[in-house]
What does this fold into?
Amino acid sequence: MIVGLTGGYCTGKSELAALLAERGWINVEMDAMGHRALENRLDQVESLLGRALRLPDGHPDRKAIGTLVFSDAALLERYEAIIHPEMVRLCDRAIDQALGADGSGRVLVNAALLYRLPQVGRCELVLEVRAPLLLRLRRSARRDGLSVWAALRRIASQRKLWKLGRRLGKKRRIVRNAGSRAELERQARAILDTRP
It folds into this structure.
């Protein structure tokens, strides 16, 4: 079974993914695929953004790259055109491996951009995590050190995604994360246990 997991910036997707991993789900995390895709396509990214976005050890400075591309919609689009095809290829390979030869694996496709990716078509069900704005801003400051305005820009940059999710109809299920791990788990289990 393949279940999609998505949600906006700092809604708690990773928390839910960790809960489901504890229950035996294999987490195919698109962020990790994105990191590998960036490493695999670093020469092309440098042609777009410049070589200065490397750390002293030679690895890409993902935080600096994120700050740069999230502040310019046209640049973000060009960056994604380089990274996404490789990320999709890596994700498909990871899903197939996690399903196993008999297809009996329980796979969680964990992706903020899931609604824009072809893997959404492979998902039997999609869990969309939502959280109150104030909680998301606090998480952003604590986790990433972003200012309120920087966090709001990231949140706004994802707004169009949630409209895309509506096309999935009953396949998309909303999980509300107000901060309680137990409540988050209860909602997810209720959805997964009663799926058609």
Observations:
- Residues 2-193 form a domain with the Rossmann fold fold (CATH 3.40.50.300).
- The mean pLDDT is 91.
